[in-house]
Amino acid sequence: MDTLQIKSILEKIKTVKVAVYGDFCLDAYWIMDTRKSEVSIETGLQAESVAKHYYSPGGAANVIANLSALQPAQLKVIGVVGDDIHGRELAAQLQNLGADTSSLFIQKEHFQTYAYLKRYIEGVEEPRIDFGVYNKRSEEIDELILNSLKSALETHDAVIFNQQVVGSITNDSFIEKANALFEQYNDKIILVDSRHFNDRFSNVYRKVNDVEAAHLNGVQVEPRTMLPRATVLEYGQALFAQSQKPVFVTCGARGITAFDSTGYHEHLGLQLTAQLDTVGAGDTVISAITLCLAAGISPNEAAEFANFAAAVTVQKLFITGTANGEEILAISQDPNYIYQADLAENPRQAVYLPDSETELCDPSVLEKLGHIKYAVFDHDGTISTLRHGWEEIMEPVMMKAILGDSYDTIDAAGFKKAQRETQDFIHKTTGIQTIYQMEGLVNMVREAGYVPEDQILDKFQYKQIYNDALMELVNKRMAKLQAGELDWEDYTMKGAVAFLHELKERGVVMYLASGTDVDDVRHEATVLGYADLFDGGIYGALREYTKFSKKMIIERIIRDNNLNGNELAVFGDGPDEIREGRRFGGISIGITSNEVQRHGHNFDKRPRLVKAGAQLIIPDFSQYRKLVSLLFKEEEISETV
Predict the structure, then answer these.
(1) What's 435's DSSP letter?
(2) Handedness of CA 164, 291, 62, 225 (dihedral sign)
(3) What angle do CA 439, 267, 9 make, to 5 degrees?
(4) What gap in Å lies between CA 48 and CA 67, rounded to an integer?
(5) Are 561 and 588 in contact (CB under 8 A)?
(6) Average pLDDT over residues 599-615
(7) Selection from 5, 16, 17, 67 nearest residue 301 by Cα
(8) For residue 362, what are the contacts with CB-CB under 8 A and spacing of at least 6?
């Protein structure tokens, strides 16, 4: 979906009138800071101080917030709140979003506004405090809601029926009467997202996750179960066949699939490097899909648009976020998709070429082989092991930056949380320029809140701290080389240099592209003895870092040489180069290199390479002759596979 298509959708959405029925909730965030807490004189108990607090729409109210962010013509709220401070705050927030709250009814007895209080101590969420769990909705309120639903079905382009709270529908007659309305207005767009009553509604469009799709097919699976792609397709197709109305199945990070009369349409999830919070992503999806459908957009395009919107929302922390048009446009410009998530997470599905350590991730790549004229190589972990261990150096540098003066005093839980997030970030960003990793570090330091704003360094300063620590390690290894204590073979992957010579003999023009500073890359390749093989050039990070990326190199090679994608091979142990090779139609070969042994697999690298789009995976270049034969089709493919 290109920029013009998204802009067109955004303009069409502005004409839509949509109503939302559901469980309207208020999310409360209390950021605790016990440093100035005092002991109560009256009780002798330790008080807990709140540094700041804020409130945002939750449940169906977050659906309203997401709809509002995309600026439809009219928004109508249909639901109930209690006669309490949370209800008044929620109504005010909904009105500020431009919603008509005339059908947000107040039940004065036996009902509290659904509110969820989330306390954070040193960045760690404490047990939640919930309001409204003992609610019982009256039949009088049910009738008011049903009358408002009927009115909305007559006057609005679409209705969202959103149910998330356990026990929020307390009278069976409400479901029966809602179904009667849905049958009466069968031609209307009615999108249902119901956590507890999904199987009770008919004549509706559905937005479900993969587990809910299984339940609707009579199959009970545990929450958070990752169902295979083929199973999701089976369940989605069965649901559409049953209702003959579009069905949308979300699969978390694996994306969204739409099912309609034309078949199924898969939209892969996006690989995101930032810290993520998936709370509220489903609200974003149902909002975007409904607006698109009401604007006359096909289910296929609606799902793609919603996929981008959800990718915006999950990157917003400590708030149930929304996605506006500008943000959706931005993320759609250059999306990084997650490929073959099932295969990535389940190595038992791996298929290896006969008599080979080469894993075939994408069988269609076999049709592309035999035409390679250019090759791009990552350096560290792909050819060279001089910088092996950089992750173990980057992690404490980042941890000390994030925790600041709290590094030595923070409790074990807080330390472990920061460590998990740091390791996850390093894992996701392997292969990109160090400066971008440090840019991410600045954001992590700010979000963690341990370091005062005036003490947070910039990305260049953090990079210098990291580089100084790393170069201490690298220089020691270089000294051993120069002293003759070790030689180049001790710091290169098995068979890598021999493979480079084989490509050279076949006339392949080779490029070396690394996220490491360019002068260091050239120096290390020269010391290890293979710099002259890269006649296409050696590239690395520049001080003006926006002027270099692996994407730029690959794009330029294809453009300048008027290449077909199958004339370019990309080799690397990080997702960055693999993703870019796949994006431009090249042949992406992932290296699951064990940098300690310099041969054999490091299976921790496999999932990220598969998700990035690796079509072939090798542990090293020890079988370089077989690899050359495969890449250049020097044997018949039928004999190889």
Answers:
(1) H
(2) positive
(3) 85
(4) 37
(5) no
(6) 94
(7) 5
(8) 339, 340, 613, 614, 615, 616
What are 343-376's pLDDT values in tens digits? 998 899 999 999 999 999 999 999 999 999 999 9
DSSP string, 54-69: EEEEEEHHHHHHHHHH
Per-residue model confidence (pLDDT) at position 640:
47
How far, in Å, CA of 22 to CA of 57, rounded?
Answer: 12
Residue 128, judged by CB atoms within 10 A of its CB (0-12, 13-18, 19+), counts as exposed
Q: 424 and 505 in contact (C-beta within 8 Å)?
A: no
Q: What 3-state DSSP class applies to 574?
A: coil
* Cα 302–chain centre separation: 19
pLDDT score recorded for residue 636: 63
The DSSP secondary structure of 343-404, one letter per residue, reads HHH-GGG--B-TTSS-EES-GGGGGT-S---EEEE--BTTTB-TTTTHHHHHHHHHHHHHHG
Q: What is the pLDDT of residues 425-473, one digit of tens each?
A: 888 887 677 888 999 999 999 988 899 999 999 999 999 999 999 999 9
- Count other Cβ atoms within 10 Å, centred on residue 81: 28
Tokens of 374: 């250019």
Euclidean distance between CA atoms 636 and 594, whole angstroms: 30
Place of tokens 């945002």: 56
Single-letter code of the amino acid located at 574: G
User: 378 with 574: CB under 8 angstroms?
Assistant: yes
The tokens describing 279, both together, are 């709370």
Helix extents (H) in 39-158: 60-69, 85-96, 139-155
Angstrom distance (rounded) from CA 593 to CA 603: 8
**Cα(466)–Cα(473) distance, rounded to whole angstroms?**
11
| Residues 594/602, Cβ–Cβ less than 8 Å | yes
Q: In Å, how far are 145, 283, 304, 542 from 131, measured between CA atoms?
A: 22, 21, 36, 54
Distance CA 562, CA 580 (A): 17
What six digits make up the tokens of 95?
Answer: 């009105």
In 3D, which of 387, 426, 433 has the Cα closest to residue 539? 433
Q: How far, in Å, CA of 519 to CA of 546, rounded?
A: 17
Contact at 8 Å (CB) between 94 and 63? no
Closest CA to 481 of 494, 467, 491, 466: 491
Helix (H) or strand (E) holding 74: strand 74-82
Which residue type is seen at 229?
R
Amino acid at 11: E
**Single pTM value for the model:** 0.82
What is the distance of C-alpha 18 from the center of its chain? 28
Q: What is the three-state SS of 202-235?
A: CCCEEEEEHHHHHHHCCCCCCCCCCCCHHHHHHH
Sign of the C-alpha dihedral computed for residues 560, 561, 564 and 569 taken in this order? negative
Residue 251 token pair? 């699969």
